[in-house]
Amino acid sequence: MSIFGRRNQQRTKYREGNEVQLDRYKQNLCIRGNHIVSYETHVATIDHENETVTRHGWWSSTTSKHINYAASYLKYKVVDEGGE
Questions:
Q1: pTM for this one?
Q2: Does residue 50 surpass a pLDDT of 90?
Q3: d(Cα 54, Cα 52) in Å, to the nearest integer?
Q4: What is the DSSP string of 16-56?
């Protein structure tokens, strides 16, 4: 399967609303639909069309690592709410 086929499968998996545990930070980080959830708090939103992760507000260094890790896993850019 081509990289584009895998990317489309990946997008579909997250859009279906399934909870996805990532390889790292399994205890405290997951993707639920288009939400990145850290310590049971919705901290960022995934935009598959623009391939971005929008960070909602300021977070601790650990939660910021979670957001950056999830964005890197998806190969998406992190942007701040209301701008870059």
A1: 0.76
A2: yes
A3: 6
A4: TT-EEE-SSSTTTEEEETTEEEETTEEEEEEETTTTEEEE-
